[in-house]
Each structure stands twice: as structure tokens, then as C-alpha cells.
Design goal:
The complex is a heterodimer of chains A (499) and B (292). With 499 residues, chain A is α+β, with helices and mostly antiparallel strands. Chain A has 17 helices and 15 strands. In chain B, a hairpin with a 2-residue loop joins strand 2 (17-22) and strand 3. The chains are: A alpha+beta (499), B mainly alpha (292).
């Protein structure tokens, strides 16, 4: 390759390296999907802001907050469920189900999550509502921005808007920290400035993220930051419902009068009057008539806008509607549309959700509120005693997940006449002992097991420890080994060789 | 083959290209948003601020300290101080409690064992092993044979003052070098060793005069190890009838022990470690399993 063929960078002047943001001024719209979005907004934000105040009585030894992430005591409370750190797999299961539900929603109705449920969408919607209330609808905001003058009215509007935004953002951060401590107490501490510093720090962080993401970043999050549109595009198929401009009905675009004339003359005439209402209401600023695209969050607001226009023109609604790629092609070929909500993809997703849900439900209903774990001493693996007996030591952790102190019997199984001793606990039986574990606590015990030389059959013998609640009989067993040095039991084999 | 022609518009997408073309494939111009660029500038400003605020640049013999005066060493000192305050209550309780009381109270026992385990790993582990499993010349503290006694108080005494060191309170009394110092004729030592082997129920190698060995044992060794060889923790004489040997129980090693004597040492820990830590160590060692 000669030097002349080496690629050269073109003049930088010709190419903008960074794209200036296209300002969008979404217009207010009324209609079916807008109403659904308001209802979902009210429900989801209502849950988020008020859930920490819901009480759930669990007994004197546990907090009475329905949903609480107790980091200090390492517990997660969710109504009747209490999760210990070692049970975090429930959370994993919930995440798996959440992902599968997202996939199912996508298979049925595309990015319905993005359009209705995503926190970014919900908070942005709320912030737009505040903006519209103070600065006016699209036309006024656009005019004010184009005029560019800063009179007292505009300045006061901006101050009021940002103040309200910051208040919502602050409340969002405030609600967040309430999930991590007793809500009424923390609220009292917050207003009297006695709450821990970390609470204020987290409120500040969440205030900043809410204010910047919902107030400033808005559609930029969907267009540039969020991974889901990229993944979603790879997961979707031609039978998923998407917000779709029915180009077979809409094209060729022309004014209402021309279309009427064309129809009388039996010439092709589309229903789209190029009024740009669908573009004006769009919260991400896309033109749905260009087809499904990354910027479209499928919130359906353009459907409401278009239906309103069609109603005024006396044309049937649904020029823009939830439809499938498959039907778009069928309509173009003048075939009847087909909706296939039930298809292998959705059946598989539903089956997987049911399966994971069933496994979790089974695990939840059958989980033991008694736990035991054993850790064999690694070093030394065994101890030779003065009389030749071999002793193994174990660290045994006894877990009581109930909210009251419980009496347990700890017993050793699997060995023939072992000497069994629990340090610091008075012995109550030859191979078992009674002990108590406090409410919602793990107790660590050092357990010594000794076998006389004559009873050792093997280098590695099976042993297990069983913990039983002596009142309700709930029990848990853990298996381990009893190790002995090679020489201890070899004499038996030597005897055999001698015969 | 690369060519470039700016201001071209891609026919399929209608998006302008960067002018880069590689084997007929053109690069569409999809620039990043401008706020992305701002983030880059913000990072630079942040970086400058960080360098001013925090320790950053290495100098010849020092480094720039930063205007905030932050140092990770200060941080650890603050953390250690708060840890001390946090432990204070339990440590104070342990200091005033007796060893037996500590062992009887489940909460104190748990804290003492945790504290003892950590202190043991740092201070005792180098000789006795991390699991207190011992080794040649260093006793295993898990077993039930104690040279200087295995009761809580005896263990506490040993840890506090040590063994055969300058402290007059330490455990004293080495085993004499019977062979080297000519107390027992060198020729007779194998007989004594053979007799010692029989004490733990084993058969000595070779043919030796066991009766002579027994006589010499009674004359020289029994004063400390006892007539039956059961040992005496008062003077640190180990039990010779058991399966546990500090320096080795084979005849050759026993001959070496009798010839040259033994006198293992251990430092005292009172004054070096905090009183509560020494107590915790005693409880920890006692609860390893062999405590009497």
C-alpha cells in the first residue's frame, strides 16, 4: 500500500463531532392512552411515596414496617416475608421473574414498559405536567423560547418551575431513604435535623438524579443511555403490538379538502393530513410515520392525538394504532389483520414465569425457620489426645429465624458412641445437648467430638448434626466428616495380613 | 482502499456520512449528543479539583498533601478509635470478670473467643500455628496434654508471664542435659530411653537392659516426671506415658533429649497486650478443646 492510499482524516470543519440537542416541547393531549398513563402514574408514584408508611405487625422483636430494608441488622422485610442475607436468592428469583415479565410484555406489546411503567417515563411525565402548568402548553413554551427575552414573568416562571421540580425530586429522595429505616421515626428525625448524615446524603443524591434525569435529561436517557431499546430490538418479532402509523391508510398525505375531492373522483387519497399533531405530542420528539424506531417509547400519545384529529375530520379512528409488523404487511396486501397474542414465544415466557414463580412459592412456603451449618476445623484437621483417642472440632452455627427465643436440642448422628461436647453449654445428654437461640439470631458454637481409637474405622467417617426445636419439632440437619490419621485404624488391616 | 468525500448523504437512510468509506461501506454520521462532551469537560474540571484537594503528586522525598489534608492513615486511626469505643463496654466487662465468669456467659464467651482468635493468629500463631496445632518443640494447644497445666488459671498464668524468660514470674526449670553434663553415663542412656519408651506401652527397639534403665529413671528422672512417668505440671515435666510427644517419641529423639536436655521458652504477654486481650487468649486456648 503506497502512502497515497493511506486513509486521511477529512477536515474536521465538515463534520460536527457532537450533536446539539434537538429541543422538544411536547404538547398536551387528551384521550384513552393519556388517561391510562395518568392512572398508572398515580398508582406507581402513590405506591412509591406512601408504601414506607404502611405498617405490618410482626411481634415485639421485629420492626412493624411492611417494606423495610434493614441494613444494620441485615434483614429485608416484605409484608409477611422476612429475608436473611443468605436467602438473597429470593431476590435473584424476583429479578429473573421481572426480566421474564419484561420479555413477555415485549412479546405482547413491544415497549409498553418504556411507555407506561418505566420510572424515567413516569417522572418525566410528571415533570412535563408541572412545566405545562406553569409555562403553558407547547405553543407558549415554544414562543417564549424563540423570543428569547428574559422578562420578569419568564424568570419567575422558570424559578417556580425549578422549585417545584426540586421539591418533587426532594420528595423522591426522601421517600427512598424511608425504605431503609422506620419511616415515621425517620421523618421526625429528618425535620428536626437529627437523622443520620447518610440519610441526608442519599436524599441529596436522589434529589439530584431525579431533578437532572426527569427535568433535564428526559428523552436523552431513552435515546442514549438506556440499554433496553437495544436489547428490545433484538428480542421483538413481527407479531408484537407496536404503535404504528398505518401507511396503507394514511398515504398519500394531503389536506382534508383535497382528500375529499380525490375520494369523490375515486383517486387514491390518504387520511393523513400532515397536521404534525403526532409529532408535537411525542415526549421523545420522533415522527411515528417514519416507522418503528429506537426513539419511540410506544406510549400511545400520538394515537390519542391522531384519533382526536380523525374525529374532527369525520374519519375513522386508528390511523395510528397499536398494531403488528405482520398486519402492516397484510393490510398492504389487502388481507385481514391477524392478532397472535398466543404463540410459542408468549407461551414459553408464561410457562417460564409460572415455573420460576412456582419454584419460589414452593421455596417460600417450605422454608425452614431453623438453620444449622457446620465448619470443620481446617487446622488442625484432628487432634490426637493423650490416651490415643482422636478429636475433631467444628464451628456450628445455629440459626433461629423465628421472632422468639427458642429451645433447641443439638445432637450428633452417625458415629458410634462419640464423646460430644459443646463449649460453654452445659451437657444434658451423651450425644445431645439442649441450648437456646435468641429471637431472629444466629448462635455460634464450638463443638468437640472425640472417638476412642478402637471405634475409628476409617480415615474419613460421615457425621451429621441435627438441630431440633424441642417445642414444635422443626429441625435442620447438616452433614460433615470426622477425620482421623491413617495410622489409627491401620492396625486392623495389619492383623488381617498377619492371618 | 479508502476514500473520503464529505457532505455525502447515504441514499438508504438519508443520513449524512462522515465521508469515510471502506471497501464500499460508508460510515454514517451519528454524532454523540453535546452533553456528552460537557461530561468530558466536567471530568477534567473534577480531576483538577481532586488534585488540589487530595494528595496527588509525588515529590522527591514527599508528596503534595492536598488542601483538605486528607490522609488514609488518619482515617484508619479514627476507625480504630471508634472500634475501641465500640468494644469498650464489653472489654471493660471482661476486665472485671473472672475467667470462669467469661466462659459461663455466652455473650462474653463469643466475644472472648473472637478476640482471642484474632490475637492468637497475630501473636501466638508464628510458633504454635494458626490453628494452635503446634509442631516439634511447640506444643499443640488443642490436645489434652498440658506441660504447665491446662486449667484456666494455669493457662492464664503461662500466657501472662511466659516460660523460662527473664521475668522471675515466668515458668522456670529446664530439663538438665543428663548426658552432656555426665549425670548419667552416656553408655547407659539408651537403656533409660528404652525404659521411657515402655512407659507409653510400646516395645523398645533392640536388646537393652530395661532393669538398669528403670533404676536410672527412678534415680534421675522420677523427681520431676514422677515414679510412673506421669509428669508434673508444677515444674513443667511432661507426661511420658501418653501418645503425645513434644519433641518426638521415637527412641533416637528420646536419647537426644536425655543427652542434651530441653528448655523451650515462651515470652510473657502481660504488658505487651491489653489485659482483656490476655484474658481472651486464655479463654480461647482453654476452649480449643483440651482445657481442664
Amino acid at each position: 500500500m503506497s502512502l497515497a492510499e493511506v486513509p486521511q482524516t477529512p477536515d474536521d470543519d465538515d463534520i460536527p463531532l457532537y450533536e446539539a440537542r434537538k429541543e422538544i416541547y411536547p404538547q398536551a393531549v387528551h384521550g384513552r392512552f393519556r388517561t391510562i398513563k395518568w392512572i398508572i402514574l398515580a398508582i406507581t408514584l402513590g405506591i412509591y411515596y406512601f408504601l414506607p408508611f404502611v405498617r405490618w405487625y410482626r411481634g415485639p422483636n421485629a420492626p412493624d414496617q411492611a417494606v423495610l430494608i434493614d441494613l444494620a441488622n441485615r434483614r429485608f422485610y416484605f409484608f409477611f416475608i422476612e429475608i436473611w442475607p443468605q436467602e438473597l436468592y429470593y431476590v435473584t428469583g424476583l429479578l429473573v421473574i421481572a426480566a421474564l415479565i419484561l420479555f413477555l410484555m415485549n412479546a405482547v406489546a413491544g415497549r409498553v414498559w418504556c411507555g407506561y411503567l418505566c420510572p424515567q417515563t413516569v417522572w418525566t411525565d410528571l415533570f412535563y405536567a408541572v412545566e405545562r402548568m406553569i409555562e403553558g402548553d407547547r405553543r407558549e413554551r415554544l414562543q417564549k423560547a424563540q423570543r428569547g427575552t428574559w422578562d420578569l414573568e419568564r424568570i419567575s416562571e422558570k424559578i417556580l418551575k425549578h422549585t417545584l421540580w426540586l421539591m418533587i425530586a426532594w420528595w423522591t429522595g426522601g421517600a427512598w431513604v424511608l425504605y431503609f429505616a422506620d419511616a415515621p421515626t425517620l421523618v421526625r428525625e429528618l425535620v428536626t435535623f437529627q437523622a443520620p448524615v447518610v440519610a441526608y446524603v442519599w436524599i441529596a443524591i436522589l434529589t439530584f438524579t431525579t431533578y437532572s434525569l426527569a427535568g433535564w435529561m428526559r428523552e436523552q436517557v431513552c435515546l442514549y443511555m438506556c440499554p433496553w431499546p437495544r436489547i428490545q430490538a433484538a428480542l421483538t418479532d413481527e407479531y408484537a403490538l407496536n404503535v404504528m402509523y398505518r401507511y396503507d391508510r394514511g398515504e398519500p398525505r394531503m389536506s382534508a379538502k383535497k382528500a375529499e375531492a380525490a375520494r369523490k373522483a375515486h383517486e387514491p387519497a390518504g387520511d393523513c393530513v400532515d397536521c404534525f399533531q403526532c409529532v408535537n405530542v411525542c415526549p421523545t420528539g420522533v415522527d411515528i410515520r417514519e416507522g418503528s424506531q429506537l426513539g419511540c417509547i410506544q406510549c400511545g400519545l400520538c394515537i390519542d392525538a391522531c384519533d382526536n384529529v380523525m374525529a374532527k375530520l369525520g374519519r375513522p379512528a386508528g390511523l395510528i394504532a397499536y398494531d403488528t409488523d405482520d398486519n402492516a404487511e397484510r393490510r398492504a396486501k389487502h388481507e385481514e389483520p391477524v392478532y397472535r397474542i398466543v404463540r410459542p414465544r408468549t407461551i414459553i415466557y408464561v410457562a417460564l414465569i409460572a415455573l420460576v414463580g412456582a419454584v419460589m412459592l414452593y421455596a417460600l412456603t417450605n422454608r425452614n425457620n431453623v438453620g444449622i451449618s457446620a465448619l470443620h476445623d481446617r487446622n488442625p484437621l484432628f487432634v490426637r489426645l493423650a490416651d490415643g483417642a482422636i478429636r475433631n472440632a467444628y464451628t456450628i452455627r445455629v440459626t433461629n429465624k423465628a421472632l422468639d427465643a427458642r429451645p433447641f436440642r443439638l445432637e450428633i448422628l452417625g458415629l458410634n458412641e462419640p464423646k460430644f461436647e459443646v463449649i460453654g453449654v452445659p451437657q444434658t445428654g451423651a450425644t445431645s445437648t439442649l441450648l437456646e437461640a435468641g429471637p431472629d439470631q444466629t448462635r455460634e458454637l464450638r463443638v468437640l467430638v472425640t472417638l476412642p481409637k478402637a471405634l475409628i474405622q476409617n480415615e474419613k467417617m460421615d457425621v451429621s448434626f441435627r438441630l431440633t426445636d424441642i417445642v414444635d419439632g422443626a429441625s435442620a440437619t447438616v452433614r460433615d466428616h470426622f477425620f482421623a490419621p491413617e495410622g489409627v485404624y491401620h492396625h486392623k488391616q495389619d492383623d488381617k495380613h498377619g492371618q | 482502499m479508502a476514500a473520503h468525500d464529505t457532505n455525502k448523504v447515504d441514499a438508504v437512510t438519508g443520513i449524512s456520512t462522515t465521508g469515510h468509506e471502506w471497501d464500499g461501506i460508508q460510515e454514517l454520521n451519528t454524532p454523540l449528543p453535546r452533553w456528552w462532551l460537557w461530561l468530558f469537560y466536567i471530568c477534567i474540571v473534577w480531576g483538577i479539583g481532586y488534585v488540589i484537594a487530595y494528595p496527588a503528586w509525588p515529590l522527591v522525598s514527599s508528596y503534595t498533601r492536598g488542601v483538605l489534608g486528607y490522609a488514609s492513615r488518619d482515617q484508619i486511626e479514627t476507625d480504630m478509635a471508634s472500634l475501641k469505643v465500640q468494644r469498650g463496654e464489653m472489654v471493660a466487662k471482661m476486665e472485671s470478670a473472672s475467667l470462669v465468669e467469661i466462659e459461663k456467659d455466652p455473650k462474653m464467651l463469643e466475644v472472648a473467643r473472637a478476640l482471642g482468635k484474632a490475637a492468637f493468629g497475630t501473636n501466638c500463631g508464628p510458633c504454635h500455628g494458626q490453628g494452635a496445632q503446634g509442631g516439634p518443640s511447640y506444643p499443640n494447644l488443642n490436645d489434652d496434654q498440658w506441660i504447665w497445666g491446662g486449667s484456666l488459671d494455669q493457662i492464664y498464668q503461662t500466657i501472662q508471664y511466659g516460660i523460662r524468660n527473664e521475668n522471675p514470674d515466668s515458668r522456670q526449670g529446664p530439663m538438665p542435659a543428663f548426658g552432656k553434663d555426665g549425670i548419667i553415663p552416656k553408655a547407659d542412656i539408651p537403656a533409660v530411653a528404652a525404659y521411657v519408651v515402655t512407659l507409653s506401652g510400646r516395645k523398645p527397639e533392640g536388646k537393652v537392659d530395661l532393669a538398669k534403665g528403670q533404676k536410672l529413671f527412678a534415680e534421675n528422672c522420677a523427681a520431676c516426671h514422677g515414679d510412673a512417668g506421669k509428669g508434673n505440671p508444677e515444674v513443667g515435666a511432661p507426661n511420658l506415658t501418653s501418645n503425645i510427644w513434644l519433641y518426638g517419641g521415637d527412641e533416637k529423639t528420646i536419647i537426644e533429649t536425655i543427652t542434651n536436655g530441653r528448655g523451650g521458652v515462651m515470652p510473657g504477654w502481660a504488658g505487651r497486650l491489653e489485659p482483656a486481650t490476655v484474658k481472651a487468649l486464655a479463654v480461647y486456648v482453654h476452649t480449643l478443646g483440651g482445657g481442664q
